[in-house]
Each structure stands twice: as structure tokens, then as C-alpha cells.
Specification:
single chain; 196 residues; alpha/beta; Pyruvate-ferredoxin Oxidoreductase, domain 3; 7-stranded mixed beta sheet; 7 strands
């Protein structure tokens, strides 16, 4: 039986985490993977903490329900690091990806973590520079695509273009595509190779 990669997204309502999780799933599906994507909402208001989930595998996924033990935890809003238990259910090999200008070492110190691998990307800065608005979901999608290694960044770009192409002007689509590429390229990790 093949391994199922589980991902949990932490964000605030309105930051696009559900869209990013769906796009992640569609990109993996486009490369022949089996996928799941689902949201979990709390109070339905903008700014409220929420979660989204992904599962991806090379074989059919027989597990349903929420992701309880994610291998990758994505924190779209860094304020949630102090108000939510983002590490709930994770083991020592889990990877934590945070939207922050801080380095992985700084996040490790602030969270007093001794295990787990930490990655950071300044998705807010990328979104503001490329899209002109604080929608960090597309840069985070690029970073998650790199960490997960389940599909190419090109597959993510195809899905973002398909998803946004009917909803927003071409200029906005292009900005989001650049944001995905930058998120993929600019994610930083601990270790000599930057993604160790």
C-alpha cells in the first residue's frame, strides 16, 4: 500500500486557504495522483481561524475525515502560531511552513521547538508585490508544492490559471502566476541546501 501525504492548512477566513488546498489537489490530480481536499470552518466570518486539509497518494485513498496527523502544516497567517495549536497531531518528522519574513531559525526559537523541520516564505510580501493585495494563498501554494514534491510547479500554474482565468482580469491572473513561482523559489528551510 502506498504512502498518503497529509497536509493541514491554518489560516483566517478570507485568506484563500480553501482555494489553495483545492488548487493543490487539482494540480496533483493532473499528474495522476489520488487526492482529497476539504475545509473546516469555525464561525463563518472574515478573519476567523479556519483549517483546510489535503491528502495525496499514488493509490486510492481509503481514509476519510479530517487530517489528524499531518506531515506538512501550512500556516498562512503567522498570528495563528500563538493562538492555535498548529502542531497538534504532528510527529517529530513533520514539516512546518510559515508565511513570515522571519528565518526558519527565528521561528524555531520563538516557538521553542526542538524537532520538526521548519520552512518559511514571505508570502504576504510576494502577494503585495505581484498581485497588489494581501492574498498570500498563491505564494503559499507554490511553497507547499515544492515541499510536498507531488507535482511540478507547472501543474500548479496550469490549475491557478484555469481557476482564476474566468473570474479575474488577465493582469491579476499573471500576478498570481508570478506569486506561485516566487513562493516555490523563495521558500527557505534549515540546513546547508536551504531545504534541509
Amino acid at each position: 500500500m502506498g504512502k498518503t501525504l497529509e497536509i493541514r492548512w491554518h489560516a483566517r477566513a478570507g485568506q484563500g486557504a480553501v482555494t489553495a488546498a483545492k488548487t493543490f489537489a487539482e494540480a496533483a490530480l493532473g499528474e495522476g495522483k489520488y487526492i482529497q481536499a476539504s475545509p473546516e470552518y469555525g464561525p463563518e466570518r472574515a478573519g476567523a481561524p479556519m483549517r483546510a486539509f489535503n491528502r495525496v497518494a499514488d493509490v486510492p485513498i481509503r481514509l476519510y475525515g479530517q487530517v489528524q496527523h499531518p506531515e506538512i502544516v501550512v500556516v498562512v497567517d503567522p498570528t495563528l502560531l500563538m493562538s492555535e495549536d498548529v502542531l497538534e497531531g504532528t510527529g517529530g518528522e513533520a514539516r512546518l511552513l510559515v508565511n513570515t519574513p522571519r528565518s526558519p531559525a527565528e521561528v524555531r526559537t520563538a516557538m521553542r521547538m526542538t524537532d520538526r523541520k521548519i520552512f518559511t516564505v514571505d508570502a504576504t510580501k510576494i502577494a503585495l508585490e505581484e498581485i497588489g493585495k494581501n492574498f498570500p494563498n498563491t505564494p503559499m501554494l507554490g511553497a507547499v508544492a515544492r515541499l510536498a514534491g507531488q507535482f511540478s510547479v507547472d501543474s500548479a500554474l496550469v490549475q491557478v490559471k484555469a481557476s482564476l482565468g474566468k473570474k479575474v482580469p488577465p493582469k491579476v491572473v499573471d500576478g498570481n502566476l508570478r506569486a506561485v513561482q516566487r513562493g516555490y523559489a523563495e521558500v527557505k528551510g534549515e540546513g546547508p541546501d536551504g531545504l534541509g
